[in-house]
Amino acid sequence: ITIIPNQRITIRHATFYLGKMPIFYFPYYTYTLNERANQFFVTPGYRSRFGPYLLGTYRWFLSEQVDGELHTDYRWERGVGVGPDINLHLGRWGEATIGYYYLNDREPGTNSGGFNNPNDRQRVQFNYDATPWTNLNLKSQVRYQSDERLLTDYFEGEYRRNPQAATFAEANKLWDNFSLDLFAQPRVNDFFETVEALPEVKLTGFRQEIGASPFYYESESSAGYYRRRFAETNSVPSGLDFEAARADTYHQIVMPQTFFGWLNFTPRLGGRWSYYTRASGPGATTAEQYRSVLNTGAELNFKASRLWTDAESKVLDVHGLRHIVQPSLNYVYVPRPSVAPVDLPQFSHESPSLRLLPIEYPDYNSIDAVDSQNVLRFGVANKLQTKRDGQLEDLLRWDVYTDWRLRPRTNQTTFADLWSDLIFRPRNWISFESQTRFDLDTGDCRMAFHNVTLTPSDTWSWSLGHWYLQDDFSGDPLQLGEGNNLFTSSIFYRLNENWAFRASHYYEADLGRLQEQYYTAYRDFRSWVGALTFRVRDNGDGRGDYTLAFTFSLKALPRYGVGHDTLRPYQLIGN
Would you state the pLDDT for residue 10? Predict the structure, then answer.
């Protein structure tokens, strides 16, 4: 090993061992220590669906304004994949990234419809973000891919973060009381469903005082041309696409009041007016419509607290306690709109959600699905605080809330599900999170997420989780479909200064299947760190998916951020 301080490290005839067993051999490797110097990264490995592979990235710096990466990947059974990423640093005109990747795939497999993917698989991506002047932001993103499974097969990290990234361009101008937004969203991948905005302009009026009166005003107005395009199977249109223009304006007056010095009362009165052109396209069913909607309601809440300065507990690390409770009641009344949602083209429609949807406007933004409402939302927020090491910390936070629908719609029950969100930290090194959702009519638990994390020292840590989602095949447009009953575990142990290990497991109890396993051995080589990762996946198709990969990084110029290998373990195998 030759080390030239602040310049480079050169390694010749290096062998990586796991115990006494040689795993990889590097005849020559050089790494530049200058932060903006050209560098080469490689990830060698084996995956049962790829065979042996070598993922190479050459990071180059042309100037302060231009740099990028060149990817050259070889997968024994699938072929060679290449493509550049170019980053532009444009000063006041922002940051831009242009990327392209191409692979002539020998075994492209099939898509979700059972049709063959193309052999020529490629993608194009573009990102742009700039603030050329104060309060003016320009943003754009393009995501094109040749087939729906490209990200799943080769860019797993991106797929897990966002499986259907949108293509859009947006310009936003901000003032003290108003915001103007110009937004365009075309569809570039015909195998994904998209609501195109061609374009949309929206003016938002933030809550602002009306003169010296006790009244406040807020608004949201938009106009655009929209096209709802359903996913195509093997480039065959569904025949359900439709399009129309829409203009919508919403205005609201609120009057925040405080009584007795502690009771907050905020009545509100608002109205919405919308215009829709006659829809066109093979799936069009709606005529020209003028819709008006009135809404009113009020929110009531207060905050109370109690202090116990002498409260002490060594077990819970409590040194004094303060309990803060905040009950709230929010009433919303919306009479029947002049035009029912079924007679309007559904562009901004309600989508399935794991969280309780907002009930008041403009937070509820499914414009085309606006319908009558007569509902009370009850909520209680609790907070327990204590002092630890002289700092104020939350020992417990617990929010409980539900809706009482005084006049439920056809697809609604009288009471919404009861929701509970809890975070409990009995010690600095223990945290427990819980989110639950109970059906008050049947008593069923519809959703549960629990996670406990133990980090008593830098020697070891353990995270245990459970994610449960009840099957929902109710036929409702907001049904969630097939559920989950997933148990997770991730344990880290540092054996000594040189060696550490991590094991992660994901077990689907309903299927009786250990879906995914990660095993990683970390080796500290003083100036750099290496990681050998073995992953096993059971996709339920009868074929095991095995991956073995080796990654390494200099401590002075780390390849990944702190904690990335915990949150995104697939990065350790090149994804």
Answer: 83
